[in-house]
Amino acid sequence: MELDLAVSTTGLGYRRGQRDIVRDIDLQVPCGAIYGFLGHNGAGKTTTLRLLLGLLRPSGGQIRIDGRPVQGQSKIAARQVGALLDARSLYPALSGMQNLDLTRRLLGLPESEMTRVLGIVELSPTAANRRVEGYSLGMRQRLGLARALLGSPRLLILDEPCNGLDPDGIVAMRQLLRELPSKTGATVILSSHLLGEIEQIATHVGILAAGRLVIQEALSSLQARQRMMIELRTDAGDRARTLVDAMGWEHAEAPDLGMLHIYPPSGLPSANAVPLLARNLVAIDIGIAALVPHRQSLEQLYRHVSVEHAQRSIP
């Protein structure tokens, strides 16, 4: 239902010169979701986010936020949306609190609003009163997120918030992002190339390839139909490959010597596939050192989709 969508677009496109950067984008972002927006560099992620924010004018299509069209109402839309596009947009010579205060004044908000958002992003008063030029990247990202949260926007658009962070910073940001909908009531659109992180944070996923939205659904639904792979370790690889071929299953060489990646037919549950393969291997005396089922990761799915669309350019 349209009323259940925080963001929806219909046929959204953007043309630069004679080239379509994005085309026919039909986003559907449910209220309260963390929507992971994925795509390689140049796929059109940032362009799409800038279109949603009104920073670019669409060449075609419609954008709705909370069911209302935003074209021609950019000021209204701006009050509903908070954004973190680039932490470098902060003023380094000012303190974190002074950076927040500039935005607070522009929005006409009370001073207490700064304390509220700093609490959400867990940036201490001591840190907030230091100059931004002395901040780590993780602290800059938290401050940028705090600024985006001023005024309690219904929608947060975050472009690569984990980009460049060290492992500890990624873990901390991951936890913070997970809690945003429950802490703030906001819907989150989160772009990233860190697919493993998206898989641990997002509730819904959209994948862009060559400027088109090629996958969009709930992460749980996507995971349920992701392909299964069985990892076989054996010292009889040639015989195992012959058996798998005879079963009509697919296989591929694994990076490790003595390991084979085996793909059962789609629709065959892992609870049936693994015992069936094991019985057939044992029946012809193939030794099994390891037989481990794996579900195709979001990263593997993304790579598959990207390869599939790599040769498709938008005219």
Structure description:
By secondary structure, the protein is α/β, with parallel strands linked by helices. The protein folds into two domains: 2-223, Rossmann fold (3-Layer(aba) Sandwich), CATH 3.40.50; 227-295, Alpha-Beta Plaits, CATH 3.30.70. 39% of the residues lie in helices and 27% in strands. The protein has helices spanning 45-52, 74-80, 96-107, 112-121, 125-128, 137-149, 167-184, 195-201, 219-224, 237-247, 270-283, 298-309; strands spanning 5-16, 19-25, 28-30, 34-38, 60-65, 68-69, 81-84, 155-159, 187-192, 204-209, 212-218, 228-233, 250-253, 259-263, 290-295. The chain has a six-stranded mixed β-sheet, sandwiched between helices. A hairpin with a 2-residue loop joins strand 1 (5-16) and strand 2.
Q: How many strands appear in the DSSP assignment?
A: 15
In whole angstroms, how far apart are the ends?
33 Å
Number of helices: 12
> The CATH topology of the largest domain, please?
Rossmann fold
So, CATH architecture of the largest domain?
3-Layer(aba) Sandwich
The helical percent reads: 25-40%
Overall pLDDT score: 87
Task: Tell me about the largest β-sheet.
Answer: 6 strands, mixed
What is the molecular shape?
elongated
**Proportion of residues in β-strands:** 25-35%
Provide the number of structural domains. Answer: 2
Report the CATH C-level class of the largest domain. Answer: Alpha Beta
Strand-and-helix sequence, N→C? EEEEHEEHEHHHHEHEHEEHEHEEHEH
Strand order of the largest sheet: 7-8-9-4-10-11
Uncertain stretches of 5 or more adjacent residues: none
Judged by helices, strands and strand pairing, the structural class is alpha/beta
**Rounded Rg:** 24 Å
CATH H-level superfamily of the largest domain: P-loop containing nucleotide triphosphate hydrolases
